[in-house]
């Protein structure tokens, strides 16, 4: 899919940008003409530009960011402003998985999941709103800023094999809707939406497949269980992110964009 020009003039701030869905969002947003400020807790973020094909370094900046750290989220957002003058879109993709049985889960793992998947979204939403609302007078609702929270279908339907993870994704799904109305109520001209990927081929998925002890077999059985016979690609989700980031989605607010090949239909 060619996204050329759809995000021209916009600056997109992305968390979890070194891998999987976040990394695909970097590529698609650059292709769509955006400036991209890419962040991740992993050292791999330092090599991001080198791993992308012929990227113009005037439009891509990257730095490390641990979303568990509220002050660091604010600093990173300020850094993006320093670099590009504005943040129009925030894509919150940083996340970790956990798919051991609920009864085997210890409190430390529970809190760590919440620290990244929920607190991280909270910190970035606060930092993004603080910056985006200051541009409210120059924007109309047809060119509003956009916060895109990467939840999961596990935040919408039962996921007995990953209950705790699913609960984090339900929390940010709910937060997204409330923030959409909160920002509209204050006329901040910020849209807030959640994206709900199904099974997507990323390192996060492969960590779960490896944990079964028979990753390839598990992969094939997951594919066979999908309505279209395949799991999703990170680019499938990134195309939805570009749509929500663009002004084409001007009347899309507080929505849940499901990208799962029909698995929850
Ligand atoms: N892969 C799937 O099947 C799937 C399905 C539904 C939802 N999701 C969600 O999509 C998002 C992206 O996942 P992915 O599949 O691309 O995984 P991934 O592991 O490929 O990428 C996640 C990225 O988040 C980063 N990250 C982890 N902890 C962080 C922290 N504390 N601060 C900043 N960055 C941190 C990692 O370093 C990594 O680069 C996650 O929120 C995940 O829950 C994934």
From TrEMBL:
One of the Pfam families matching this protein, by short name: adh_short_C2
Keywords, ordered alphabetically: Oxidoreductase
Entry keyword annotation includes Oxidoreductase: yes
Record bears the keyword Amino-acid biosynthesis: no
Top-level taxon: Bacteria
Record PROSITE patterns: ADH_SHORT
Molecular functions (GO terms): oxidoreductase activity, acting on the CH-OH group of donors, NAD or NADP as acceptor
Similarity field: Belongs to the short-chain dehydrogenases/reductases (SDR) family.
Protein name, as recorded: Bacilysin biosynthesis oxidoreductase BacC
């Amino acid at each position: 899919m060619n996204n050329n020009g759809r995000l021209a003039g916009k600056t997109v701030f992305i968390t979890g940008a070194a891998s999987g869905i976040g990394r695909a969002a970097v590529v698609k947003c650059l292709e769509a003409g955006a400036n991209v400020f890419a962040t991740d807790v992993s050292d791999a973020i330092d090599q991001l530009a080198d791993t992308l094909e012929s990227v113009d370094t005037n439009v891509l900046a990257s730095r490390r960011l641990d979303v568990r750290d509220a002050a660091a989220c604010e600093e990173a957002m300020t850094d993006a402003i320093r670099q590009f003058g504005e943040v129009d879109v925030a894509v919150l993709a940083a996340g970790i998985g956990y798919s051991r049985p609920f009864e085997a889960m210890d409190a430390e793992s529970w809190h760590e999941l919440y620290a990244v998947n929920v607190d991280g979204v909270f910190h970035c939403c606060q930092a993004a709103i603080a910056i985006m609302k200051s541009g409210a007078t120059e924007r109309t609702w047809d060119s509003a800023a956009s916060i895109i929270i990467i939840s999961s279908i596990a935040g919408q339907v039962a996921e007995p094999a990953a209950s705790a993870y699913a609960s984090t994704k339900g929390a940010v799904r709910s937060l997204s809707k409330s923030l959409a109305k909160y920002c509209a109520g204050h006329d901040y001209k910020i849209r807030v939406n959640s994206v709900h990927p199904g099974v997507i081929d990323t390192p996060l998925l492969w960590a779960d497949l490896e944990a079964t002890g028979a990753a390839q077999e598990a992969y094939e059985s997951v594919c066979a269980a999908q309505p279209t016979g395949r799991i999703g690609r990170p680019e499938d989700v990134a195309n939805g992110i570009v749509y929500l980031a663009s002004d084409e989605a001007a009347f899309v607010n507080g929505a849940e964009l499901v990208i799962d090949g029909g698995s929850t239909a």
